[in-house]
Specification:
This protein has about 260 residues and is of the alpha+beta class. The protein has two domains: about 80 residues, no CATH class; about 170 residues, Glutaredoxin (3-Layer(aba) Sandwich), CATH 3.40.30.10. Helices cover about 60% and strands about 10% of the residues. About 25% of the residues are buried.
């Protein structure tokens, strides 16, 4: 699976390359012209500089690729360092919030925290992959963070899921909703709730409770603090993943997190 998510931002090497060329022109030393020119660059000098830059780039086009690669690597390193700081300052909210449902092994040595939306197509595609990851590794703790970002029906589904905790049905209800091909209107949500033995009258009351409001607000605030830009997003050890990954990639990240604990 490619790294995919509902996201807002992206990295554009082509635009960066253009900026590099402009920077090269600006950075080149220029010969001062006469005093009457007030220190500016004459039209002739400007044309000469542009020709030098153009000719050099045409003769050595790899410098653009190399510069883009170096800048991209620097950006990734800076982003990773920033993520580490964000994770460290929000570690307790990620791992120890008593109101966040837990699956897998509650005493596992590696925790997988997932932010998701029931109407997110990528979340649905990666759901069986994460299930397989947790089932195949008895020492993973899975923490669920409801983060409905795709409209009112997403919020409605998350309210129902949060409220289902009161009846001890969260994990089974979550599974049904994540695997459902639904627009998640209220009647569809209640039908899914009934299918796993949930008292829908009580569910409706609990969906409207202040406690449910508080949990949603905390999850939104945590996602904002972590600078998440879409669903799904994961935290595994010291790694913050924005988007989905395939099973082998997730296993490698879990193994790395486990090794760091030794």
């Amino acid at each position: 699976m490619k790294n995919s998510t509902h996201r807002r931002n992206g990295f554009h090497p082509a635009r960066l390359a253009g900026a590099l060329v402009l920077a090269a022109v600006i950075a080149l030393p220029v010969q001062k012209v006469s005093a009457q020119n007030t220190g500016g660059v004459s039209i002739a000098d400007k044309a000469a500089i542009e020709k030098i830059v153009r000719d050099y780039i045409l003769e050595n086009p790899e410098i653009i690729t190399d510069a883009v690669r170096i800048l991209k690597n620097r950006k990734e390193q800076a982003d990773n360092a920033a993520d580490l700081q964000l994770l460290a300052s929000n570690r307790n909210a990620l791992l120890n919030d008593p109101e966040s449902p837990v699956g897998g092994n509650p005493k596992g040595d590696v925790t997988v925290v997932e932010f998701f939306d029931y109407r997110c197509g990528v979340c649905k595609r990666i759901h069986p992959i994460v299930d397989q990851l947790v089932k195949s590794d008895p020492n993973i703790k899975r923490v669920y963070k409801e983060w409905p970002i795709l409209g009112p029906n997403s919020v409605l589904a998350s309210r129902a899921a949060i409220a289902s905790r009161k009846q001890g049905k969260y994990l089974s209800f979550h599974k049904v909703m994540m695997e459902a091909n639904s627009a998640f209107g209220e009647s569809a949500i209640m039908a899914m709730a009934q299918s796993v033995g949930i008292d829908t009258a009580k569910l409706r009351r609990d969906m409207r409770s202040g406690e449910t409001d508080t949990i949603l607000r905390k999850n939104y605030a945590l996602a904002e603090k972590l600078k998440l830009n879409g669903t799904p997003s994961f935290v595994i050890g010291d790694t913050l993943l924005r988007g989905g990954r395939d099973l082998d990639s997730l296993r490698a990240i879990v193994a790395e997190a486990r090794a760091k604990k030794k």
